[in-house]
């Protein structure tokens, strides 16, 4: 990556946020409910990333996503900790690739707890693949005009003399 002198990078204090210090199995176990709970923040962040094409402009949206994730796992810890730990432990120990298929019983217990205590229903299959329109308060970035380059080599005039190729044509099977 080439950097120029006029590139400004954010200060380290702008980038410092509390990390979500959880294991892979824990994140897999909570992923469906987390995606539903933080859907608005995630969509806003991804829209910013796609529109701006510059991650430096989306730092605040990323902080909101991290804060939402922390808030979600705090709520899970306060209301469904034992059910969630059983489910995450099953996901961690039952397969080498964190497959959820062998943990359907503990998943059902966890899903019921989330629905009863936090009123978060597990999204149906294919929910995150559905197309949605995201409404945002952020102004749309200005559209950059396409670069127009002058023709580097002017075209040859049509009335010039056309000399046959010195060593013949590459297309030897074609005759004039």
UniProtKB/TrEMBL annotation:
Main location: mitochondrion
Organism this protein belongs to: Chilo suppressalis (Asiatic rice borer moth)
Family designation: Belongs to the complex I NDUFA8 subunit family.
This protein's name: NADH dehydrogenase [ubiquinone] 1 alpha subcomplex subunit 8
Domain of life of the organism encoding this protein: Eukaryota
PANTHER family named among the record's database cross-references: NADH DEHYDROGENASE [UBIQUINONE] 1 ALPHA SUBCOMPLEX SUBUNIT 8 (PTHR13344:SF0), NADH-UBIQUINONE OXIDOREDUCTASE (PTHR13344)
Function: Accessory subunit of the mitochondrial membrane respiratory chain NADH dehydrogenase (Complex I), that is believed not to be involved in catalysis. Complex I functions in the transfer of electrons from NADH to the respiratory chain. The immediate electron acceptor for the enzyme is believed to be ubiquinone.
Alphabetized UniProt keyword annotations: Disulfide bond, Electron transport, Membrane, Mitochondrion, Mitochondrion inner membrane, Repeat, Respiratory chain, Transport
Subcellular location, record wording: Mitochondrion inner membrane
